[in-house]
Amino acid sequence: MANNIDDAQAELDSVEAELEVVELQISELLEKQTKLNSRKNKLLKILEGACSSAQPSGSSKAPKPSFSKQDLQHYEESDFSWSKEVQAKLCSVFQLSKFRPLQQAAINLSMSGKDLFLVMPTGRGKSLCYQLPALCSKGFTLVIAPLVSLMEDQLMYLKSINVSAVTLNASSTKEDSKQILAGMIDKNSPFKLLYVTPEKIAKSKLLMSKLEKAYNMGLLARIAVDEVHCCSQWGHDFRPDYKLLGILKRQFPNVPLVGLTATATSNVLKDCQKILCVQEPITLTAPFNRPNLYYEVRFKDNEDCTDQIAALIRGRYKNQSGIVYVFSQKDAEVVATDLQKRDILAQPYHANMEPSDKSLVHQRWSSKKIQVVVATVAFGMGIDKADVRFVIHHTISKSIENYYQESGRAGRDDGPADCIVFFGFMDIFRISTMVVMENTGQQKLQNMVAYCQNVDRCRRAMMAIHFDEVWNDEECNQMCDVCRHGNDYITMDITQHARDVVEIVEMAASMDEKLTPLKVCEAWMGKGPAKRRKMIKVTSLSRLEVESIIIHLLLHGYFSEDFSFTPYTTYFYLKLGRKASLLKNGGHSITMKMRRRVVSHATVKKVSESAGEKSSAKVEGKRPADSDNKKSVAKKDGQAVDTQEEAETALIDVSNIERHNKTKIYKNHQNIEKRLAQNHIESLASEASEYVKPTSVFEVDVEVNLVQEQNCACEEEKGLKNAPEQQSSSPKRRRKQPPTQNCAANANQVKADLVSTPSEVSIISAAAVEELHHLRSYYSKQLRRINYISQEHLQSSQPGMLTCMREPFKSLRFPSRTTIARGARNLWTRVSMRRKLIQ
Ligand SMILES: Nc1ncnc2c1ncn2[C@H]1C[C@H](O)[C@@H](COP(=O)(O)OP(=O)(O)OP(=O)(O)O)O1
């Protein structure tokens, strides 16, 4: 009877293990499907692009291409009845000599009465596309804009060029409102542009009734909806009142509508089309690329970030205007003060300042009385200073759309300008908790983080993908750090590191403990409570490498976010992601692109000496997303480095990772050899005493480790032949891996050496490997719990499983009906059965 139960239990375990393998395979296939789908979409886009390189994309109803390349050419011409007047006013009123790309087509389309969505990078001149038609039409143009400050800026500008424009908003006086409402139905049109907020349209019945009258009199010439992406919840600045603007097209169907935005994906535009009740708008999309902007991402070291920014402002950007974007109002105050202390004319700008103070800062900056505005995102729409030479992000933006728009305030005069973002590990989680309530907040932030973490694609290409554009990296013209420092990348296998760090989070979870990303970093690097330290595999990677790997795992689903709310704050913890279980599969691997640099011999020597290396390192890489970080190098080297850009780079010692991998493999080999000497059930008891030593808690599966590590060793042997660690291998290890043989020959050698061990057949039976994996995972988890609970108890106990574990075992969760002795016996029976089966 007892045997039957044991057999049934053993079979159940086996079935469960097999099911787990199937699930892993399904996850892998799903992952592959996602990759293939994404590739397919890219290829389709390339093909579409080849068929029509023209920018316009017609109606959102895809099958009906309502606007062809020929149509675009037609509207680019200047032989319309209004063309002369348009050209004349362009010169005389706006004092511009020629149109920028797509401006003329947009104006002609609008003058022809077509509904239009105009997607044009920030600063490229969208406003002209409704202001100029307004001057050439009877009646007035209704402009809906999201911010009063933005309207006021526009009014100031229009006043300066003698264009009559007015605004109706909450702060308009009764007298002004009365005059404006009367003017709307005056045939002589005392103003050409009427700016209102969406709230005014939603709330003022009087305004709607006047619009109705004006429409009937033919005086409502067109409707311009500025920042049209605010209609859509998928846009980055959703404004609920924009949702109500559909009333305009429903009430005034014959009035052409132009929606303007700098950043809208096709999905956002489709949403806007629906919300605004526009039947078949023509969408003109100017290439998003701003060739004069140089994009760069630097790794942020909190301690000297402000120093670096100050150095740039006083050096590269001396006497030039710029913006430093920060995360919070407090940061704006602090960073501005810090810059002032370094003799930089900087002032803060944020939403919590008095309107008069804000205007003053804006004015002083526009007139070059101050050099830098240190601002939150409140300093945004309507900022139209042409000669901004740099936009530095002290903290990453919360989305690529935001970043594109904020950085796009640089170089509006088409002159060269820099957009630099400082990418900080902890900033990711600050922002993540800030956007936790937004539906798509996490996804958008992840895209931004991916943009920063990326080191193998042109930064413009990353943005282009985001905005549905097809982009050829070569067109970047080395105007981003990735393209400029190209060909310096190395693909690293970080699988074992991933396993180690995932195990930390898993172990914490098994003890009902949650870890913040910072705690995970610290734990992995051997900091934190002594109890925990003893139980984890401490990494020898640098802080930058650790952070990079954690970010990579988060972006790729091995970790995910776990928010916890208190009345005062939101905490971000790391938990295992949907792909974490894939790491249990021996065949699963994770690679990560890192930048490497072949540096001068002198630099190599410095770095390797300081790292305690006796051999000469071959390559030095740097943390992804890291560009010139002088201090990091200085820290690593323990000495100053010269100012050359190459030497400024914060280097990540790629060989360090390789070295770390190899050291681990070597250690595991020693463990395996130790295990092979044990061939009896008693060994389990002694093994249990080993488990109290934190380093050996994962060693239940003799066979699995052996197979994997032997294979790994082959790879190692092949790829890292000359590495110093190999020379220091123990004689035993050399015996197992004759240096002259290739991987297959090694496998045979392993077979010959270990012919009586189960490992050779484990190679053949993937299911067996998986089953043992499963066993290992279950028992090692339990053993870790034992280890944790019984720390103090064990110190005073004799080694030996039963003596030292009796007490702590009581609180453990074993499968039902399992006693301590049976648990141990089951484990060993299964391992022995496997051996027999194999032999
Ligand atoms: N054809 C042109 N030639 C030269 N300068 C132009 C032309 N058209 C517009 N500009 C200038 C005027 C402004 O100083 C600047 C930006 O114009 P503007 O209409 O404010 O941009 P925009 O509306 O696309 O930016 P934003 O998205 O920030 O609102 O470009």
UniProtKB/TrEMBL annotation:
Cofactors (names): Mg(2+); Zn(2+); Mn(2+)
Q: What Gene Ontology biological process does one annotation of this record name?
A: DNA replication
Tell me the SMART domains matching this sequence: DEXDc, HELICc, RQC
- Specify where it is mainly localized: nucleus
Q: What is this enzyme's catalytic activity, as reactions?
A: ATP + H2O = ADP + phosphate + H(+); dATP + H2O = dADP + phosphate + H(+); Couples ATP hydrolysis with the unwinding of duplex DNA by translocating in the 3'-5' direction
The record's comment on protein family reads: Belongs to the helicase family. RecQ subfamily.
* Keyword ATP-binding attached: yes
Tell me what organism the protein belongs to.
Answer: Culter alburnus
This entry's Gene Ontology molecular function terms read: 3'-5' DNA helicase activity; ATP binding; DNA binding; four-way junction helicase activity; hydrolase activity; metal ion binding
Which controlled-vocabulary keywords does the entry list?
A: Acetylation, ATP-binding, Coiled coil, DNA-binding, Helicase, Hydrolase, Isomerase, Metal-binding, Nucleotide-binding, Nucleus, Phosphoprotein, Zinc
Q: Which Pfam families match?
A: DEAD (PF00270), Helicase_C (PF00271), RecQ_Zn_bind (PF16124)
Compositionally biased residues, Basic and acidic residues: 606-639
Q: What is the lineage of its organism?
A: Eukaryota, Metazoa, Chordata, Craniata, Vertebrata
Its GO CC terms are: chromosome; cytoplasm; nucleus
Q: What is this protein called?
A: ATP-dependent DNA helicase
Instruction: Give compartment(s).
Output: Nucleus
